[in-house]
């Protein structure tokens, strides 16, 4: 199980962070995800990565339901290189905020598909298992989500 923790802890944390926008909560839910894996999953599981994402997703939504609070859309983490100028950091921060707001305006399924693809690096087949749908539906959701993001961010809709 330690091997799985080393392999997947960072991507599970980033996935949870992309859902909640709160570093502390993402860390807590990541730890809880791996605790559940340790207690209930053997090393022989066929797709532990997809299972971890499903557990993390369920923990987040359970927490969200318990707390009955809105996911903060304005929060985004900034990783700044020391060589960047203040103007570059401001522009990059504004671009991240715009992207985060645009992601937040998508419906939940479309947003989750993009988060799992780009933050988690999951395949459409893995996402389909997690969301309990078909890979074709995941492909369509991703396509439509990217189309809407292009419109929201000022790109073309072609």
UniProtKB/TrEMBL annotation:
Is the keyword Disulfide bond assigned to this protein?
A: no
Query: What GO molecular function annotations does the UniProt record carry, in alphabetical order?
Result: DNA binding; sigma factor activity
Q: Which residues form the RNA polymerase sigma factor 70 region 4 type domain?
A: 97-149
Q: Where is the RNA polymerase sigma-70 region domain?
A: 4-69
Q: Which InterPro entries match?
A: RNA_pol_sigma-70-like, RNA_pol_sigma-70_dom, RNA_pol_sigma70_r2, RNA_pol_sigma70_r4_t2, RNA_pol_sigma_r2, RNA_pol_sigma_r3/r4-like, WH-like_DNA-bd_sf
The answer on whether this UniProt entry bears the keyword DNA-binding reads yes
Top-rank taxon of the source lineage equals Bacteria
PANTHER family per the UniProt record, alphabetical: RNA POLYMERASE ECF-TYPE SIGMA FACTO, RNA POLYMERASE SIGMA FACTOR HI_1459-RELATED
By sequence similarity, the record places it as follows:
Belongs to the sigma-70 factor family. ECF subfamily.
The protein's name: RNA polymerase sigma factor
Which organism is the protein's source? Christensenella massiliensis
Q: What is the lineage of its organism?
A: Bacteria, Bacillati, Bacillota, Clostridia, Christensenellales
């Amino acid at each position: 199980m330690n091997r799985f923790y080393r392999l997947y802890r960072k991507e599970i944390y980033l996935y949870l962070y992309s859902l909640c926008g709160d570093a502390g909560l993402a860390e807590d839910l990541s730890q809880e995800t791996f605790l559940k894996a340790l207690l209930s999953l053997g090393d022989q599981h066929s797709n532990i990565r997809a299972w971890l994402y499903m557990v993390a997703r369920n923990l987040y939504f359970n927490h969200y339901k318990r707390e009955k609070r809105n996911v903060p859309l304005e929060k985004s983490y900034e990783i700044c290189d020391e060589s960047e100028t203040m103007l570059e950091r401001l522009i990059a921060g504004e671009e991240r905020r715009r992207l985060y707001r645009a992601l937040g305006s998508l419906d939940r399924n479309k947003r989750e598909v993009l988060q799992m693809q780009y933050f988690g690096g999951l395949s459409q087949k893995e996402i389909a298992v997690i969301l309990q749908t078909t890979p074709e539906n995941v492909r369509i959701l991703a396509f439509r989500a990217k189309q809407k993001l292009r419109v929201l961010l000022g790109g073309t809709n072609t």
